[in-house]
Batch of 2 targets.
Target 1
Amino acid sequence: MVILTAALLLARLYSMQVMDATYTTMAKDNVVREVTIYPSRGLIYDRKGRLIVNNLAVYDLMVIPRQVQDLDTVKFCGLLNITREEFDKNVQRMKTAAGYSTFRPQVFLKQVPAEVYDRMQEYLYQFSGFYTQIRTVRQYGSNNGAHVLGYIGEVNQKQIDTSNFYRMGDYVGISGVEKSYEEQLRGERGTRYVIVDVHNREVGSYKDGEEDIEAIAGQNLHLTIDMDLQAYAEEIMQNKRGSIVAIEPQTGEILALVSAPAYNPNLLTGRMRATGMRMLLADTLKPMFNRALMAYYPPGSTFKPIMALLALQETGIQANYYFGCSGAYRLGRRTVGCHYHAPCFNVQAAIQHSCNAYFCHLFKLFVENYKFNNVSEGLTKWNEYLHEFGLGSSEYLDLPALSGYVPLPERYDRMYGKNRWKAVSIISLGIGQGELGVTPLQLAHSTAVIANKGKYIYPHVVKSNAKDPNNPYNKQHSVSINPKHFPPIIDGMEQVVLYGTGRNAYVSGLNICGKTGTAENPHGEDHSLFIAFAPKNNPKIAVAVMVENGGHGSKYAAPIASLIIEKYLNDSIAPYRKYVEDKMLKADLLRPKARYIGPVAEEEIEDDFISTIFSTYTPAPLSVPEPLSTISNDQVSVVGDNAGNPNPTQIKTEVKINPPPAIKMQPIQTTTTPSENK
Amino acid sequence: MSSQSTNIDWILVFTYLLLVTIGWLAIYTADFNEQHPEIYYLGSNYGKQLLWIGVALLVGLCIQILDTRFYTAFAYFIYGMALLSLLVVLLVGTNISGSKSWIKFGFFNVQPAEFAKFATCLALAKYISGLSSAYYSIKERLVGIAIVFIPIVLIRLELETGTALVFTSLAFVLYREGILPGGILLLGVLAITLFVVSLLIPYQYAMIGVSALLFVVLLMKGKAPLWQKAFVFLPISILTLVAAAYLDEITLLVILPILLVIFLLITIYSQRVSYLMLVLFFSCFIYVKGVDYIYNHILQKHQQNRIGVLLGTIEDKQGAGYNVNQSKIAIGSGGVYGKGYLEGTQNKGNFVPELSTDFIFCTIGEEFGFLGSAALISVFVFLLLRIIAVAERQKSRFSRIYAYGVACILFFHFTINIGMTIGLMPVIGIPLPFISYGGSGLLGFSILFFTLIKLDSERYMYLR
C-alpha cells in the first residue's frame, strides 16, 4: 500500500513536472512583470539656440502603506511643511484612489518642492515605507510663447483607442508644437523586466536585465521663433486682443507668433496645472484661444495688394490703369463707399490711398472677365489664386491651425440661387470684406509672398533639417503670377507708409512697405489690421498685426507693426520713437473708459484722435475679466497691471447717450456695403 | 548499556537525520532572507528550526536514556495528560490562523495535538496489548475505538480538522489487531467512493450505474431464473429513477425510506436475492440523494468550495483553489532537474502561502525538480517500509502495535501532505513529517520516532 501510494504520487509528479510544460509558463507569468521606462520628452530651443522648454525633475513622495511603522505624524508634517489636515487629506485621497493596495507604492505627495526635497532627503530614513520617486515635468524658461509651444496633458481614451502607442496615463501634446511634433518629442518607451513577489513587490531583475529595452529620449526641437521678438511682441499686445505674426520671407520661418491675451506657459505645468487650467478656462478673455491660428477675420484693405496682383495677372490691365473714384463705387443698386483722396492714376496710388472703388472695379474686372464663361468660373479662379497665397488652407503649417475661409461659387449658388448672382453681389470680396475669412498667420504668409515677389517657402515654426529632401520646408514654391507685376504693388505699399494711410508705421531708414486694413466688425469697434515687410529690397521680415476693436488700421496695428520691425531689424527702438512704443504699451482696449459728455479728464481726449471724434458713442462695454470667486486676483492672462480688476469702470446707465446719426451703427448683413475701407 | 546501543536501528536513525537535514535546507530556501543569510539567525524560520532540531535530538537522547518500562507504565498517564492538555487548549488556547490549538509559552507556542499522536499510540498499544488476543468483547472493541475517537473529537473541537483526520489512520491499527472488523472498513471505503461519485456526476447517472452494478451482482448470485430476477429488479428500479426525476428532493427523501422499509420486510419474508438487491438499491439511493442534499443545502459555502475544488467541479484559482494552484505551478515549473537551490522564483516571490510549513514540498519540487521529489519520496517510502519491517520483527505486542501506529501516522501525513501540494488530495493543513517547519510538529514526530527506536532497541530484552 505504501509503495502503491508512492507510485501514485510519483506518477502525478512526473506528469506535472516532466510532461506538462504549462506550469512553467504559468510560473513565468506569475513572477515576471514588465515595467515601463518613460523617455524624457524632447527639449525645445529657440531661434538663437536658447533653451526655452526643458524637463524639470520633480519628486513624488511615495509610500508603501504596509511598511509604515510608528509614524511620528507631527514630525513628518513638519518635515514636509504641511498641516495635519493636509496630511489627513492626502491619506484619504490615497486610500480612495483606484488600485490602492497596502503592498504597492502609492503617491503620497505629488511634486514635492525642491527646498522641501533637500531637507526631506536628509531625514526620510526615519520614516520607513516612504521614499521619493523622480518624475519630469515641462519647465518653461520664459513666460512667453505659450501659444506656439502649446502644452501637454494626459492622453484621452479616444487617443488610446486610435493609436497603438499610447497607454493610460501617458502625456501627449495637446496644442502648439507639443501637439504637431508629438511624434518627435515623445521618444520611445523602454521596458524593464523584473521579478515580483506575490504582492507585486520587486524582488530583482529578470535574467539580469538581458531582455530589457532602453528608453529613447525624444528629439530636441529648434524653433524659428526669436524669443526676444516674441517677448517684445507679447508685451506690446498687453491689454489688447489680437495677434502678431512675423515671418522671415526668404525662409518662411515664423519669427514671432503672438495671440493676445497671452498666458504664462508655466501655469500649465507642474503642481499648478489644475488650478492654472481652471483659471485660464474661466477667463472671459479666452487666453487659451490662439487667435493667430484659429480666429478668422476679414482681411479688409490689407487684401488690396493681392487683389491688385490678381487683376494685373489676369485682366490684362497695366500698372498705370486709371479708375476714377467719385467717393463711392456704384454698381447697379450697390454703393460701396470710399473716402476722399487724390485721384488714383495707377495701382500704386490706389494702394497708397486704399481706394475702395478702384479695387471693387478690379474685382469686377477679374471675375467677370471675358476669359471666363461666367462669374462662377471667375470666382473659382480667384479662389485658386488665393490658395496660392496661402489663404483658405493651413495644411502647410506645422502647427494645429484652422484653414480660414475663401468662398467658392457654391456658397453664392446657395445664397442667391444658381446663375442668379454676379460680381455686384459679391463685390465686397474685392476689398477683403464679405465672406472672406483669414487668420493672422495667413495674412503674414501672404505678405511674405508679396515681399519675396511670389517665391515662398511654407511658414513653419520648427527649423527644418536642411539636408532632408523630404522636408516640405526645404522646398521653394512660387505663385503663378508674373514677377514683373510685383514691383508696382510693392511700390504702392512703400507709398502707403511714406505718404498714405500707413504713415504711422514710418521708421526712418528701414524702408518699410505696408498696408493698413480696417476689418468691419458687426459686434463693435472695427478691427485694426496692418501688414508690412521691410526692407523693401531683400526683405528680412514680414509682419501681420491684428488688433481687435482697434479701429482704423493706422491707429494701433501700423505703429505696432513698425515697432516689431524696428525691434527685429535694429534690435532696439530709437529714442525718438519711444513715445510711440510707450503709447502702444499703455493702450488698453480691454477696459474701455467711460466717456461722459461734460467735464472729462483731459488725457482721455488728447490720447487718441479717432475716439475723440466719436466720443459721443460708446459701444457696449467689452468683456472685462470678471473676478473668479474661487481665484484670487492673480494675474492670469498677460493684460497689464490691473487685470482682473474687481470693479471695472462701468458706464452709468442713467446717462443717456445717443449715437450721432452720422455714424452707421452696425452692418446688418456681412455682405452689405461697407461704409468705409481705408 | 553497550548491548543496548548495538541494538539501536542506526539505519532508521540515519534516515531520520537525512530527512531532518533535507527539511532544514528546504526551510532555508523557503524563508531565505538576503539580509540574514547566516543559518543561525533566530528571526527566521530556518534559525528557529535549527534550534528545534537540536532540541529534538536532545529529547531523542533522553528517550534512549529512559527505561522502556517507563512507557508501558506511564502510557495511560501520558494519554490522560494529553487529553487534559487538549481540554486546556480548548479553554485557554490562542487562536492562530483559524484554529484554537495553540498554547502560548512566553516566546514560543505549543500545539498539544502534535503530542496527542504519541500519547494515543502509546495508550492504544498499552490497551490492546493488555487484552487477551483470542477474542474481543464488544465493550473491549468500543474502548479500543474510543481511545482513538476521544482525541479526534477534542481536536476537531479545536477546528484542527487535518490533525483530527490523522487519527483516523489508526483505524488501520485497530483492523490489524482485530478490534475493527474488516467489513466495516470496507463499508467505509465504499461509502467514501460513492460519496465522491455522487458529487462528481448527477445522482441519476450515479444511480443508473449503481443499479447496473447491482443487476450484475444479482445475475451472479441466487438460483432464480434470469427472467424472474429481471422482472423483479429492473421495473422497480427504473420506475423509481423515472419517478425521481419528477419529484422534488424533500418528497423523494420521504418516499425512499418508506420503500426501503417495505422491501426490507419483503426480503425478510421472501428470502429472495432480487429483493435484497432492491433494498441495497434504495439504500444507495437514499445515501446518494442525502449526500447531494447535504452538499447543496447543509454545507457552508466555503466547505462546498473546498470539496468542489478538490473534485474539480469548481474552478477557482484566486479563492479556495489559490493555494493548490500556486503550489502546482511551483512544483510543475520545477521540471526534471529543478531550478537549482535558492533559485526558485515562485518560492522567492512568496506565491505559495504556508510555504515553510504545510507546503514545504513546493520548494523541493521547484528547486530540485522531479528527481529531487522522487528522491524525497523514496526516502519516505524507505522509512515507512523500514518501520513496518521493524514492527513485524517485534516480539512484544506493545512494541508492534506502537510501531504500526507510528507507521500509520507517518504514512497518513506523507500521503495527504504531498498529495495536497500536487492537487491529488484536499487541502487539510497537516505538515510533512520531519520536513515542515514547526517546533511542536518536529518535536512530536521526534518523540514518536525515538520512542520507537528505544522500544525496538530492546526488542530482545522484554516481552511485554
Target 2
Amino acid sequence: MKRPGLPLFLQRRPYRRRRKIDAARLLPVFGAFLLLLPMLWAPAGDEGRGTVGDGLYLFVVWAGLIAVARLLAPSLTADGQPDPDEGKG
Amino acid sequence: MVPFNILVVVCLVYVGLLFLVAFLVERRAHARALPWLRSPLIYTLSLSIFCTAWTFYGAVGYAVRSGWEFMTIYLGPTLVFVGWWWVLRKLVRIGKTQRVTSIADLISSRYGKSNMLGVIVTVISVVAATPYIALQLQSVTLSFAVFASTAADGGPVPDKAATALWVAVGLALFTVLFGTRNLDSNERHLGVVTAIAVEAVVKLVALVAVGVFVVWGLAGGPADMMAKINASPLSSWDLQPGRWAGLIFLSAAAVLCLPRMFQVMVVENVDERHLATASWAFPLYLFLMCLFVLPIAVAGLDLLPPGTNPDLFVLTLPLAQGQDGLAMLAFLGGFSSATSMVIVASIALATMVSNHIVMPLWLSLRPARAVSGDVRRIVLLSRRLAIAGIVALGYAYFQLSGGSAALAAIGLISFVGAAQILPAMLGGIFWRGATRVGAVCGLLTGAGVWVYSLYLPSFGPDGVISARLIAEGPWGIGWLRPQALFGVEGIDPLIHAMFWSLVLNATAFFAGSILTFPGPVERVQGAAFVNVFDGEVPAGGWVRGAATAENLLILSQRILGGDGALAFFEAEARMQGKAGPLPDPTPGFVGALERRLSGSVGAATAHAMIAQTVGGAAVSVEDLMAVANETAQIMEYSARLEAQSEELTRTARQLQLANEKLTRLSVQKDSFLSQISHELRTPMTSIRAFSEILMEGDMPPAMLRRHATIIHEEAIRLTRLLDDLLNLSVLENAGVQLTLGLVSLQDMIDRALVAAAQTRPERSFAVHRDPASEALYVTTDADRLTQVFINLISNARKYCAAPEPELRIAVRQRGGRVMVDVIDNGRGIPEDSQALIFEKFARLTDETRAGGAGLGLAICREVMTALGGSITYLPGQGGTAFRVTFPLRLRAVA
C-alpha cells in the first residue's frame, strides 16, 4: 500500500542515511557468504585442511565484519523515523 | 597449589562482591544517580551471557575434537548482531511498545494473547534449558574437582554431588534475592544486569589472560604459536559442510530464541540506541573469546598428560605450569560464566513460568472478583518458587545424567530445542498472516520432532528409548527411526534433527496459518507487531464496556501497588484533560492499562484480568472493520481536501491571469480613447480647416475642387473608421447574419491577395503558395472569410519590415477542419504582446500605423468565432504567422 505524504526525493543527509541502512542490511548477507566460503575450497592432495590458514581467513573476515559494523553503527543510531526537517533545506 | 578451603572462600568473596555490586546499583538506581549504568557498554557486556561455561571450558574441548568448528557457535550470533537492522531492531522496538516480559510473552502476545502458546513456549524453553543449567553445574563441579584433586592437603575432598548441590542452592538464593526483589512494570533488573556485566569482564579477562600466557609465555609469540599449531595433531582439521553451515544457522537462531538471550537483549534493554553499539561490540567480545581457544587447545595437547579432559584445559594448563594465580583467575572466569548463565536463565524462565502457568492457574482457581489483597506478593512468590524449581530441575538432570556427556553436545541439543521458537517468532514479526493455530502447530510439531529425534536419544542407547528403537524404528518402521527420519540416513544426528524439526515446524506453521482465520485480537496484535515502525499502536482492542475506572484502579493496585497504580491513573486522567484522579475508561485508556499490566504479569494474564473486569467485552471483527473504515474515510477525506486545494490553486491562478489581462485591457482602453479621439480629430480638423477655406470663397475652381476632394476623402476615412467600429460591435453582440455557400478556398485566397495588394501598393511581395493543397471546397461565409484573409495579408504588407518581403500561405486539412497559415518573414510579435494583439485597439507600435485603428485582428477574431473557427498567433515560424482554423463544412445554426 502506498503511504501518502512521503517525499519522493531526499536531501543529501537523509539520502546518505538510507544508503547506510542499505549497507547495514547487506552486511550480514556478505558476512554469511564469506563465512560459508571455506566449504567450497577443498584442500589439495591427501592432507587435511590447514588449521592455521583457515583460522587466519576466518578471523580476518570476522574482524572485517566488526570493523564495518563499527563504521555503520553511529549513523544508524538516530531514530528510524524520518527527520522532521527531512526534505527541507 | 590452591587449597580447596581457600578456593571456597574465594568463591564466597567473589559472590559477595557481586552481591554488593548488585545491591549498590539497585540502591543508586532508585535514586537515579548512575547515568553510566544505562550505557551501551553495560548492555553489550550483559549480552555476554551467551558465552556460558560451555564457551569458557567447552570451546577448547570442542576445538580439540573438531578444529575450527567451535567457532560456528559464535559466528551465527555475529551475523545476527551485524545484521541487527533486520530482526533485533524490530524485536527491541516491539518489546518496548508491547512491554514484553519474556519470549513466551512475545509469542503469546503476538498471537492474540493466547495463553496456550505462552504455556507451550514456556515448556519448550524449560525442557531445553534444563540440560544447559545442568551443564553449568557440571562445569563448576568439575572445576572444583580439578582443584581438589591437585590439592590433597587442603582439606577433605568434597563429594561431587554435594558441590553441585551447594552451588545450585547458592545460585538459586542469589537469583531469588536479586531477580525478584521487585515487580517492576518493565521487568528490568538493573542490579543483576550490572553484576552480569562484571562477570562478563572477569571471564573475558580470564580467558584472554590464559591465552596470552600460552602464546607469549609458553610459546614465543604468534609466529612460534603458528609453528606449534602446524606441528600439533591439530595442524589440519576436517570441515563438514553440513555441520559448518547448519551450526552457524543454529547458533544464529539460538541467540534470538534462547530465553536468557531474549531477557538481556530485549527485556533488559534500556535504550534502543544501545543496540547499535552492541552490533559491533558484542561480535568483538565473541571474537576475543575465540581468539585464544586453539592455542590453548594445542598447548594443552602438547604439555598435559594424554587422557586429560580437554574440556578443562583452560584450568588444568595453568595449574600444571604452576601458575596458581592464573589458574585462580581462570577458575573465577569459569565460575562467572556458569553463574551468570544460571542466574539470567532462571530469571527469564521463572518469569515465563509464573506469568504463563502459575498466574493463569491461580486466576482460574480463584475468580478475580473474589480476591482481595495484593497480587504482587503472589506473583513474586511464584517467581521465587519457579527459580528454585528450575535450578532444582537442572540439578536433578545433572544427577540423573551423571555428568558424563561432553559439554558441547549438551549445549547444541539445547540450542536446537530453543530454535523451535524461531518460525513462530520471525513469522510473527514479519508476516501478518501468521495465526495462533499455525504457531501452535509449528511449535508442537518442531518440539515433538526435536524430543523424538535428538533429546531422547541423547540420553544414550537404552537411556530413555531403547537401542532397538533407534536402530529399527518404532514397530520396525524404518522410516520413523529417530536418527534417520523418512529414510534419510548418514547425516550427522544433530543436523538431521535440526533440519527435520525446523522444516516440519515451519511447514506446519505455514500451513496452519494459511488455512485458519485469525481472531480479532490476533489481527490487532499482528498489525501492531508487523507494523511496529509505522507509528501508532492500535488501542488494545477494547470497546467501551461495563468497567468503571474505579474497578480498574482496584485491579491495577493489586498488580502495580497502590502508589504506582494511582500515579498511572492520574497521568492518564491528565492526558484526557480531566482534573480528578480517575480517567474515563475509554478503549484507549484500557489498552494502555493492559500494556502496563502486561509488563508485570505478561500479556495473556493481563488480558484475562482486564477481560474479567471489563466484562469480556473485547473487540469483534466488525469493530475492527469499523476502525479500518474510519481510517479509510479519513484518508479519503484528506485526499479530497488535497484535490480541492489543488483546484483552488488552479482557479486562483486563472483568476490572477484574468485580472492581469483586465488591467492591461483597461490601460489599453484608456490609450485607445485618446487614440480614437486623435483618429477622429485628425480628419475632423482637416475637414474643418478646408471647409473654412471654402467658406471664404474667392478661389480658383481647381483649388476649390482639390479642397473639396480632401474633405471628401477625410469624410470617407472617418466613415470607414466608424464602419469598423460598428462592424465589430455587431460581431461581438452575435448579431451576424451568415450567408453560407460552397466556395473554393483557392478563389478566396486569390481574391484576398488582389484586394490586399491595394495596401501599400509600392511594396512587392514574393508570395509562396501550394495550389494543390488549396484545391478545397468549403462551406462557409465566403465574404467574411475573405475579409479575414485580406486583413491578415494587408497586415503583413503593412508591418513586414524585411527588405525583401515574402509571404507564405499554407493550407492543411485535419479531419473536418481546415487550417490556413499566413506567414511573413518579418520580425514576428514579441511574446508578451502575443496575448494582446487580438484585443480591440491593440497596436504594437505607434509609428508603424498606416491608417488602421487597431481593429483589424479583433474583427478577424470575432469573424472566425462566428464561423465556428479560430485565429491564433503561431510562434516560432521565422516571422509573423497567423493560423486560421475553420470547419470544412459549417452548418447554419438553426
